[in-house]
Amino acid sequence: MTDFQIPNARASEEALLGALLIDPSIMDKISVAPASFYDVGHQLIYSTMRVIGSRQLDVVTLSEMLDRKGKLEWVGGQSYLISLVNKCQQTYNYEMYERAIIDTAVRRRVIDLCGSLAGDAYNEVKNINDSISVVVSELVKSAKPKGGASHISDYLKILYTEIEERAADPKEIYGLATGMKEFDRITAGFQRGEEFLLAGQPGTGKSLLAFQWGCGMAENGYAGAVYSLEMTGVAMLRRRLSALTKIKTYNLRSGVDMNRYWNQVVKAIEAMEKLPIWISDASNWTTLQMRADLSRLIQQNNIEWFIVDYHDLLGDPQGTDAIEKSSHISQELKAICKDLNLAGIVIQSLNKAGYHITPTMANLSGSTKVMHTSDHIALMSVDKDNENIVHLNWDKVREGAGKRSMKLYRTDDYPAFYDVAPDSTAGYND
Fold first, then answer.
1. How far is CA 25 from CA 55, 57, 66, 132, 236, in A?
2. Is residue 64 predicted with pLDDT exceeding 80?
3. Residue 4 host element (H or E)
């Protein structure tokens, strides 16, 4: 007969308590109840933390309150509280710790309920139908996930507050402005919680445009992250430096004639260093790892957007073929945007049918889930008469029925895009 251990997550309990002592603001982001902790000492520590609140919580305050209750030594003393900090390797994994605690608490609850029902089944005096009804009801309550359905009034309160705040400070660009005027007029800026999918024919400059948007948002004070799975971070920044200094990338790479440009380079790099942008050019990211890293960056740097270049290079192992993998990745990226309240810009490739025509979202590579999960889909194509003009056409917009196309001018000498008026075929607005 197999011996079963009572489900518990002691290590996750210690890690979560340690995370709260390192970053008390996490307390406002979790919903785990004290009773969900397996260790009764941890229950007391956590409930005391809740009483103190996120603004005043630290090891000293926690120790003093437990001492006043006569429970400090009972939970292990101040030395144990300090050791909890060392047992938390990564504070941005707090959601994983919380899930483990809740999951094992639910399992213990199920064991208790089923044990109670088994006892009633043996007791023939009990009305077994009543016992079943009670236990089934409790099991359903136990199965309610975090984020379970709430009454409509909860969401109406959020909507009312949003409208009230924006009415007090009305703005045409109420999202994350990129500084690209025509684009911001069309989109009202990138919206947090939404995924913007950018696709296009090869050579249209998808990565260049996405990073330019990111730099524009950063220049407007919106912090963000870039996951460049295809291009190195240095190559990406070299192109941006070229656009800012009007020095050709050839000169930046070769060093030819660079001595006469040195002051421009130094000035531009000093300005770029101040941008609130975090970059990774590692090629082995999965959506799960990315979610954890973005959670960390939200806590540490208050980021509001992220770029993935590009969708199909993510290394999620799910799925037996490319279509299933693509479906999984698209759903996970959308969930990251929604759950973490970030504006996501995801670059996607086209299938071969979209290379030689004006592409639509039907030409996106991978699963049809890619087009269904995205909030916005914009596609790039080169103008038939002027190769320096790129058309950006929206094929899906979650909200709004306004203008859905624009023209962008790109230079031959410096890698950058500029707004072009709808009736213009030459020139650009710098």
1. 8, 9, 21, 42, 34
2. yes
3. none
